[in-house]
Specification:
Blueprint: H1 26-31, E1 60-65, H2 72-86, E2 91-95, H3 102-114, E3 119-122, H4 127-139, E4 144-147, E5 159-163, H5 165-182, E6 190-194, H6 200-214, E7 220-225, H7 230-243, E8 249-252, H8 255-268, E9 274-279, H9 282-290, E10 295-300, H10 305-317, E11 333-336, E12 340-341, H11 346-349
Parallel strand pairs: 1-2, 1-3, 3-4, 4-5, 5-11, 6-7, 6-8, 8-9, 9-10
Antiparallel strand pairs: 10-12
């Protein structure tokens, strides 16, 4: 996942498409065509790229490995990768069975490498633990597209693509800060339900949230870390609510664990505060759209990046670059912007939402 020491990104600019009506996404850059906004399927997968990049090239086999699809966002990652591969006549995708055991994932990737793939797309369960296998693939001349959870060294991948974890925190903090300022709330109590604290992504999200709130003169109040699961979300939220008899706002890092967070809120009979979610599930967007929930916004972390990773792997394996860019090769890193979904723009984002 995104980290603070990634190489500086080249400014991609505003190209032909505005993904979801917000800042440009990686998929729009990959498209390189001249039409209007890309169509989306009911599964939240952006339509296949058009233009030069989409022209059939040399047939390539792309290996794909990711953690177990044990919650909505991760399931959408795998679905997006498979859906994008199916849209290219020159791509064969060899996907391993998802696992949350680093040793098992290493073994699965070794099988892919031994099978003769042309490129590897990998979302490591643990970036540090999987770095060695990324280095091994790179040393064998197999380009690696490191998806979401980043390896510990750029020597292990050709290109990194992931979401903007720091930007998620900033977006959530800005929304909450502005809402409270507009409501004239002074000295607000702002809670936070984080993900797994040991992961760099959680640290980046929390830092962005804290620093954005500081620009309003606010600070984070009670904070609990969960585990990106419904059960942990419900448990830690129940504890936080019990310890905080009053809240003005709450940010939950992940819409999957948000199901448990909202259940705890309902069980406690609390509705005096506003809540912001994270990742952009369709479930969360529908609650925002209904207006009948404390959930008033969610900040996106789009799983469509997995489809973009497959497109990048295809181009690298075929020795091609992005048709929209002057440079002949693809960038070394791409960060997909985080959008803020509210009742005002939820209809634009809903087709790209994933199911928790």
């Amino acid at each position: 996942m995104a980290r603070t020491d990634l190489p500086a990104l080249a400014a991609l600019g505003r190209r032909r498409f505005l993904l979801g009506g917000a800042a440009i996404g990686a998929g729009a850059v990959l498209a390189g065509c001249t039409g209007n906004e890309p169509e989306s399927t009911s599964e939240g997968q952006a339509a296949a790229p058009a233009g030069d990049n989409a022209e059939t090239g040399r047939a390539v086999t792309i290996g794909f490995s990711a953690p177990a699809a044990d919650h909505g966002w991760m399931a959408a990652i795998t679905d997006n990768a498979e859906s994008r591969a199916e849209q290219f006549e020159d791509v064969t995708l060899e996907a391993t069975e998802g696992t949350n055991d680093p040793s098992a994932q290493i073994a699965a990737v070794e099988t892919l490498l031994n099978g003769g793939i042309d490129a590897l797309v990998i979302l490591p369960f643990d970036g540090n633990a999987l770095t060695e296998i990324g280095r091994r693939a790179t040393d064998q001349g197999i380009p690696v597209i490191n998806l979401d959870r980043v390896f510990s060294t750029p020597l292990a991948y050709r290109t990194y693509i992931g979401g903007d974890n720091y930007g998620m925190g900033v977006a959530a903090g800005n929304f909450i800060g502005q809402q409270l300022r507009d409501a004239g709330v002074s000295n607000p109590i702002i809670g936070e339900i984080a993900g797994i604290d040991a992961l760099p992504l959680t640290q980046d999200r929390s830092r962005g949230f804290r620093e954005a709130l500081a620009t309003f003169g606010f600070q984070v109040g009670p904070r609990q870390a969960a585990e990106f699961t419904v059960e942990s979300g419900e448990s830690v939220t129940a504890n936080l609510l019990q310890a905080a008899p009053r809240l003005d706002a709450l940010w939950n890092h992940d819409d999957d664990q948000g199901i448990g967070v909202l259940a705890a809120i309902d069980n406690a009979g609390r509705d005096e505060f506003i809540m912001v979610g994270g990742a952009g599930s369709a479930n969360a967007m529908e609650l925002i759209q209904s207006g009948d929930s404390v959930l008033k916004a969610t900040v996106t972390y789009p799983p469509t990046m997995a489809g973009d990773a497959v497109s990048l792997a295809r181009l690298v394996a075929q020795g091609r670059g992005m048709s929209d860019l002057v440079e002949p090769s693809i960038p070394s890193s791409i960060v997909v912007a985080s959008g803020t979904v509210t009742a005002d723009n939820v209809e634009e984002y809903l087709p790209l939402g994933f199911r928790s």
